[in-house]
Amino acid sequence: MPIDLYYVPGSAPCRAVLLTARALNLNLNLKLVDLHHGEHLKPEYLKLNPQHTVPTLVDDGLALSESRAIITYLVNKYGKSSGLYPEEPRARALVDQRLYFDIGTLYQRFSEYFYPQVFAGAPADKDKLAKVEDALKILDTFLEGQKYAAGPGLTVADLSLIASVSSFEASDIDFKKFPNVKRWYETVKTTAPGYQEANEKGLDAFKALVNSMKK
To answer: Which GO molecular function annotations are given, in alphabetical order (predicted)?
Structure first.
């Protein structure tokens, strides 16, 4: 049976799933969700995902939302030997911590700072920007002496974080002033399988959306 992914190309969480699928050499049946025309609010979509968010994965009768749950599920089912989500408890705990940091701190703070500007025409909030930069300082500390976010090898933590951090390129946030973040960013861009196809194309779509909304 095909693995269906309901997605929007510009979405950072969706791009994290696409990056993971490429790293696992999985073919996903991509189903574009038209948020502008409310497809995510239709009964058939709400049946799959009552949160009416993207991405949503459907695999052999399992409907799963939340990108970080999706990417760990995909590795657990289709790529246990890949190293992307280590089975050793300490190594896995570190990956989980980075994933929770991404959704609960880094991406959350970016969303609270940037999305009101894009979708509601709000002015930039200096206090919220300071919180984003504080999160980047924390990420920079995590990366001290580390090639990747959770150790010596590429994991789903990197794939989730790179989808988030790359989105900052559409904003005025200068994440490259943090030296460890900059080094890590360039490393993941060149070592994550299918990075250009799985992330760069969607990032370009996100940038185009931001530019159109700000006009």
So the answer is: glutathione transferase activity
